[in-house]
Amino acid sequence: MRRFARSRRRSGRVRLCPALSAFHRSGRVLLCLSLSVFLLPQVSSAHAQGFTIEQALGYPYPYGLTAATHAARIAWVFDSRGSRNVWVADGPGFTGRQLTHYTGDDGMPIASLKLTPNGSTVVYARGSETNAQGEVADPTSDVHQPEQQVWAADVSNGEPRLLGTMNCGFEGCEDIQISPDGQNAVWSARHALWLAPISGAKPARQLAYIRGDNAQPQWSPDGTSIAFTSDRGAYSLIGIYRFDSQRLEYVDPSVFRDMLPRWSPDGSKLAFVRLTGGSGGFFSGRLQPWTIWVWDVASGKPSQIWASTPDANGSYPGEWESDAFQFAAGNRIVFASQADGWVHLYSIAAAGGAPTLLTPGTFSFQGGVTLTPDGKALLYASNQNDTDRRHIWRVDVDHPGPVALTHGESIEWTPVTAGGAIVCLGSSATTPALPYRVTPQGRKPIAASAMPNDYPSAQLVTPQQVVFKSLDGLEIHGQLFVPRARAHRSPALVFMHGGPPRQMMLGFHPMDAYNFMYAANEYLASRGFVVLSVNYRLSIMYGREFREPAQGGPRGASEYQDIVAAAKYLQALPYVDPQKIGLWGGSYGGYLTALGLARNSDIFKAGVDYAGVHDWSAFFGGGAAAAASEQAKIAYQSSPVASIDKWTSPVLLLQADDDRNVAFSQTVNLVPLLRAHHVPYELTVFPDEVHDSLLWRTWVRVFAATADFFERTLIKGESIHTVPPEN
C-alpha cells in the first residue's frame, strides 16, 4: 500500500513502509519503496525513440548506504535486475567496487548492511523476513525452503562466511548491531537475541533466555552490556544484559510501552521512549502521547525529561522518531516531534529543560538522520524550500539554523560521513540513483560505471510539478508526465502511490517499489500516455493535518475526492482525451484504483489494481459484532465493494499470494463479486511472491501487463471478455 504503512508492534517500534499489513480487531491498522542534473533538450516526436520496460528497469538500484565509524569506507547494496550485491568505496577518491558476487534474479534481498568500525568487514542479512507462518519468502518456488541468514565478508577478499540464521519476524530485519570493538554481532530473531563472532569461528548462540519478543539491541559504548526492547504484549520493557555477570536487569519496568534504548557516548546514561497512550495506529483515530526518559546507570534512577502534549500534534511520530532518536555531544538528546504540525528535529539536555526546535518551518525531514563524527551536528534529508524533492541539510544539535548541502533539480537521501566526507544516495528526473559524494562544488558520482551505457535517460521526460484544488478546495500536489510524442488527444492515467504515508517526487524515488513505479510511469509516457502521479491527502511531507485527515481511509475515504479532482485536471488539458482516463496503483493505490472504478466508471474507463484493499470491514473480524459496529459500517461504505453495482469499467487485478501486507483474500473475495456483477476483469496471480516483489522479472511482468492492458482498453478500445458466473 516497500507498502501500505506497517507498524512494528512486537518491538514497540512503529515503522512506516510500501503497504497494508493488517487491521487489528481493535480497529487499528498495522501499516506494514543525487545525481547531477542533466539538462536534456526536448526532442520532436519525429526523433523520439521507444524503449522496453526491461530497459526502463535495467539500472542498478542502490540502498542500505552505511559507513565505517573509524575509516574512510562506505558500503551499499546494488540491486541490478534482481541480483543484489554489496559494493564498497574508500576515500578520498571513493571509487566503487563490487564486493560480493551473487548472481541471478533469485529473490534474495540483502538487509541490515553494516561495516565494522575499522571498515575491514561487512555484515548483512540475506533473504526475506518471515510471514505469519514463520516462512521466509520463496518467490522462485524453489523446492528447497530458503532461510534468512546473517553473513560476513572481509573487504579484502569479499568471500562470504555464514554467521547464523536470522529468520526474523515481519519487518524485523534491521537489528544487526556490531560491537564497538568490531568482534561480535548481535541481532534479533525468533523472539530472541542472538550473538556470533564476526570471524565465524563459532556458531551463533542465543544471548540468553529472555521472556517476550526481544529486539532493538544496542551495545553499550564499552561493549560490556546490551540494551534491548522486550515486548510483552500489551506493554514492553527496556532490558539490559550484562556480559560480566550474565544477568538481566530492567529499566524502570512499568505498564507502558518502552522502546528505542540509546546509550550516552560515555555509557553513563540510557535514554528511551515511553508511549503512555493506548494502542495507536494509522487509521485508529486514537491519540498516542509519549515521553522521553533518561536512566542514570550509576544510581539506577530514571527521570522523565520531556512529555508530548495530549493533542493530535503530540501523538508519537512513529518512523521519524526511530530515525532521529539518539544521544549527541554536549549531553543532548535528539528526537523528532510534530508539535507544531510538521515533523521536525528537536534536541533537549539529558537533564531536562526546554527542548530546542532545530528545523523550524513548514516542511518535514525524512530519511536517515546521521550525527557528524564529533556528535555536534546532524545530517538529514528534508523538503525544505523544495516541497516535492528532498535534499541533504546540516544543523547543529544545540541551536537552529539548517544549512543546505545539496539543492537544485535533484533528489538526495541517506547521508553518511566517512573520513570527513559526506556521501548520500541521489537521483534526478531522468537519471536513476547512485551513491554520491557531496562537495562544495556539487555532487560527484560514485560507481557511475555500474549504470548501463544504453540506459535511455535521453528518452525520459522530466515531470512537471502541478498543484491543483481538490473538490473541497484542498491543495494537492502531483507530477505530470507528458509524452514527447503524443496524439492530439492522448489517453491519460492517474497514478496513486501506496502507503499511504508516502510522497512521490519529481524524480526517481528513494524507496525500491516506488523507484520502479516511477520508471514504469516514464515507460507509460513513452507509450503515449499522459500520467498524473497524485500525492493525495494522507501523503507525507505536507503537514500532519494533510497526512491524517479525520475521514481518511476506512473512516470515510475523504482522499478519494483528490483522485476525482486529478481526473478532472487531466480532462481539462487540451491534449488529453477526456473520455480515455484510466487509473492505476499498488497497495493503497490499488485500493484507490478499485474505488475509482466502483464509484466512477463514468470517469475512469479502465484500471490496474495491484494488491489493493477492496473491503475495509474485513479488518474488523467479520461476524455479527463487526456488522453491528458503526465503525465497520463506515469502513464498508468506504470500500470498493460497497459500490460494486456501479462498477462497469474493466480492471486488471494483480497480486502475489504470499502477500504479507494486504491479505490475498482481498482479491479472492473480490473476483466472485466482479463475476456476479458482470464486471470485465483480467487476473494475474504471482505464486509465492510477496507484496513488494522480490523478483525483478515480476516487476517487469507487472508493468508490461499494465501498459498492455491500457493500450488495449484505452487506445484500441478492445473489450475485455471474462467467463460468466456459473448458474
**Strand order across the biggest sheet?**
35-36-38-37-39-40-41-42
CATH architecture of the domain at 458-715: 3-Layer(aba) Sandwich
Strand content: 25-35%
- The gyration radius over C-alpha positions equals 25 Å
Q: Oligomeric state of the chains?
A: single chain
Number of helices: 10
Distance between the termini: 35 Å
Largest sheet, in brief, is: 8 strands, mixed
The stretches of 5 or more residues where confidence is low (pLDDT under 50) are 1-48
- Strand tally is 42
CATH class of the domain at 458-715: Alpha Beta
Q: Report the average pLDDT across residues.
A: 89
CATH homology superfamily name of the domain at 458-715: Alpha/Beta hydrolase fold, catalytic domain
Shape verdict:
globular
Helix content class: 10-25%
What is the CATH topology of the domain at 458-715? Rossmann fold
Structural class: alpha+beta
Description:
The strands form ten sheets. An eight-stranded mixed beta sheet has the order 35-36-38-37-39-40-41-42, with helices on both faces. A four-stranded antiparallel beta sheet has the order 3-4-5-6, with no helix packed on it. The chain has a four-stranded antiparallel beta sheet with strand order 7-8-9-10, with no helix packed on it. It is built from ten helices and 42 strands. Residues 1-48 have low confidence and may be disordered. It has 727 residues and is of the alpha+beta class. The chain is globular and about 75 Å long. β39, α6 and β40 form a beta-alpha-beta unit. 14% of the residues lie in helices and 34% in strands. Among the domains are: 62-200, Methylamine Dehydrogenase, Chain H, CATH 2.130.10.10; 458-715, Alpha/Beta hydrolase fold, catalytic domain (Rossmann fold), CATH 3.40.50. The relative contact order is 0.12.
